[in-house]
Amino acid sequence: MSGDLDSLDLIGGKRLSIVTTADGLTAEPQVRDSDGSWRRARPGDGVAEALLALLVAAPGVSEIGSFTVHSWSARVAAGERAITVDQTNESVIVGDAAVVKWAAHLLAGPHPAPRRIELLRANGFRHMPCPWGLVTWRSEDGAQTLVAGVDEYLPGAVDGWTWAVDLIAAAAAAPGAPADELMAAAADVGAVIAELHAALASTATIASPADAQRWRAAAVATLDEARAQADPALRDLLDSRAINEILADLGAMAGTAVIEGHGDLHVGQVLRHPGGYAVIDFDGNPVLPPAERVLPIPAVLDVAGLAQSLTHAAIVARRHHRVDEQALARVERLARDRFTRSYATHLAALGHGELYDPACLRAFRLQQVLREVVYAARHLPRWMYVPETALPMLLDEGIAGGP
Q1: Does the annotation list 368 as a binding residue?
Q2: What is the model's pLDDT at position 88?
Q3: Is 264 annotated as a binding residue?
Q4: Mean pLDDT, residues 391-395 taken together
């Protein structure tokens, strides 16, 4: 193919190629046809199986041309079927044992996933699919980018946006047992994120004044972009003095502990499965420049991302389920509060309470809402109702004296 830049050869006439498309670079699984030509592979053509075979044959870290292969716990499996719900990657289940993800849109490196996964494995973090391996590719400028990842397949796992929306809707519709289930889920996820941060505590350093100013400047830049993208009604709200006052808090974060956190945490990154909850996707925040995705973050940024996504899940529930609006607002607040309290309590019990300073929780939640405005305007206009609803909810918390 004329767009192929590089290829990692696998067994049996299969390969993983780096391909140039109109939308940028993509990792494309390919198979050789009987006439010797290469075509894009489909689930069932065996390219995912061939990648597992490579991981089994090359444990540890291997350099193969411009590719680096990290192999941890892989084993051979057979039989491929596609996952259709993943919009970020092309995902294939192999033998009901592993999930192979081909990166549909390559993000320029450096890439945080290899180091973060190594740290989590070394420190015994239990709440993630067992990582089998991953493959990175080195471009001509020397930057490494993730092109494929392989994780344990969790049968019965439910995407976070599904379980959160369903539990919130059930709790609002019928207080009692369903509400208890939502509160238990929020507490359990808080404990999981506390364990995640405790497993990364060895990376802790202290934020400098430059770090604090960078966080504030990034939030203000997102606000400016959201204003430029918003319709007039939303723009009036974005121009409120309260927003600037909330974001100003980020400039005072010098001296705060920072760690190599998740960086893009929301309910969609937390699977619910018969064994509990599992955190996925340690690729960092895709909206950040490559050099910033690998930088340490305050733990509160991860907490804010997950907490705010519970609000967004409630907004989705209100649109798609017949539930009382006031009841929905009540259970949203309760779930968010239960999550943050559980997180703080468990982190302290694990001996790392110093990592979490909630002073800027609201500021980072606000920044996430602003990012949702920009995302909806650029890529998914039908999502705009979520940040349009979330923004006044967050600002009203201050008027009501909420957390």
Answers
A1: no
A2: 66
A3: yes
A4: 95
pLDDT tens figures, 155-200: 999 999 999 999 999 999 876 666 899 999 999 999 999 999 999 9
Positive or negative, the CA dihedral 385, 391, 396, 397 is positive
Asked whether the beta carbons of 119 and 300 are under 8 A apart, the reply is: no
Query: Residue type for 336, please?
Result: R
**Residues 18/4, Cβ–Cβ less than 8 Å:** yes
Q: How far is CA 373 from CA 54, 169, 185, in A?
A: 42, 24, 28
Name the pairing type of β-strands 131-138 and 67-71: antiparallel
63 is in an annotated binding site: no
Query: In which residue are the tokens 């973060």 written?
Result: 116
Question: Distance between CA 90 and CA 109 in Å, rounded?
Answer: 20
What values do phi and psi take at 81, rounded to 5?
-145, 150
Gap between the Cα atoms of 312 and 300, Å rounded:
18
Angle at 340 between CA 403 and CA 301, to 5 degrees: 90
Q: Report whether 4 belongs to an annotated binding site.
A: no
Look up residue 111 and give its DSSP letter.
Answer: -
CA Rg, the chain, in Å?
A: 22
- Its CATH architecture, for the domain 160-400, is Alpha-Beta Complex (3.90)
269 is in an annotated binding site: yes
H helices present in 200-249, as ranges = 209-229, 232-238, 241-248
Tell me, what's the pLDDT at 138? Answer: 93
Cα–Cα distance between 114 and 353 in angstroms, integer? 26
Two structure tokens written together for 135: 């493959």
Question: Which residue has 């995705």 as its token pair?
Answer: 293
For residue 38, what are the contacts with CB-CB under 8 A and spacing of at least 6? 1, 4, 15, 17, 30, 31, 32
d(CA 28, CA 5): 11
Question: Is 56:74 a contact under the CB 8 Å cutoff?
Answer: yes
The backbone torsions φ and ψ at residue 70, rounded to the nearest 5 degrees and listed phi first, read -105, 120
Parse the chain into domains and list their residue ranges: 4-152, 160-400
- Check the annotation: does 397 bind a ligand: no
372 is an annotated ligand-binding site residue: yes
| CA-wise closest residue to 260 among 295, 287, 212 | 295
Give the model confidence (pLDDT) of 59-118 as tens digits. Answer: 999 999 999 999 999 999 999 999 876 556 799 999 999 999 999 888 777 889 999 999
